[in-house]
TrEMBL record:
Keyword presence, Transmembrane: no
InterPro entries per UniProt: Ester_Hydrolysis_Enzymes, SGNH_hydro, SGNH_hydro_sf
Signal peptide positions (record): 1-23
Domain SGNH hydrolase-type esterase: 62-210
Keyword terms: Signal
SUPFAM superfamilies from the UniProt entry: SGNH hydrolase (SSF52266)
This protein's name: G-D-S-L family lipolytic protein
Length: 223
């Protein structure tokens, strides 16, 4: 009887572990994250202080990040189309595995488009910050505001509410800063429409020029 109970326990444990692994493998973006890992490890120098930029497609499509910040060792682990809840599943693979001294996070843009409330998004980001600061308490964290865009301009009020909450979250959390890329992309209250490619959502070089002007004040070369 004891042998049967022990065997049953082992089988149950095996099935649980197998289902967990399969669940991880079947998560949305798991394939893209694996590809990001493979590409990033080819250029990662663990002997250098590493700065990670991660988040949705506005980060993924920033192809000249390293050239923009030549004095820093930059890893771009952005994965297009992601929401904050997707990043939460891959904190090890996209951030923590590289032991970064600093991380820039851009999430919330796609969440708003997916009709998630600003409060719900902030809740997920709070969970993310909790994990990051528990695992690597000395890491400097920069939360990048949601950007305006032509294709999502009809949601501007939701984005503005989200950015207000994001700014407050950063102000109330030690070791976390807020970088505002929203206002620099406006001409007074009107959107600068020449900052985008044909889809009206993603930025061209002029858009990234503006982001660089904001974020260069946050990149810490001495960490």
């Amino acid at each position: 009887m004891k042998f049967r109970m022990k065997s049953l326990f082992i089988v149950t444990l095996f099935l649980f572990a197998s289902s967990f692994v399969m669940g991880q493998a079947s998560l949305p973006f798991s394939g893209e994250v694996k590809e990001v890992q493979e590409n990033t490890r080819k250029i990662w120098d663990s002997s250098k202080n590493t700065i990670v930029f991660t988040g949705s497609s506005s980060i993924r499509m920033w192809e000249d990040l390293q050239e923009r910040f030549p004095k820093a060792h930059i890893l771009n682990t952005g994965f297009g189309g992601s929401q904050s809840s997707d990043l939460e599943h891959f904190l090890d693979e996209l951030i923590l595995d590289y032991s970064p001294s600093q991380v820039f996070i851009y999430e919330g843009d796609n969440d708003i488009s997916a009709k998630k409330s600003p409060r719900a998004i902030i809740g997920t980001l709070e969970d993310i910050l909790g994990v990051l600061q528990t695992r690597r308490p000395e890491m400097d964290i920069v939360l990048i505001s949601a950007k305006p865009s032509i294709s999502r301009w009809h949601l501007k009020r939701k984005y503005m509410r989200f950015n207000k909450r994001l700014r407050k979250l950063a102000a109330q959390t030690q070791g976390v800063r807020f970088a505002d890329v929203w206002n620099v992309m406006l001409n007074k209250r009107k959107l600068k429409r020449d900052l985008f490619i044909e889809d009206g959502l993603h930025m061209n070089a002029k858009g990234y020029d503006l982001w660089h002007e904001v974020l260069k004040n946050y990149v810490n070369h001495t960490l």
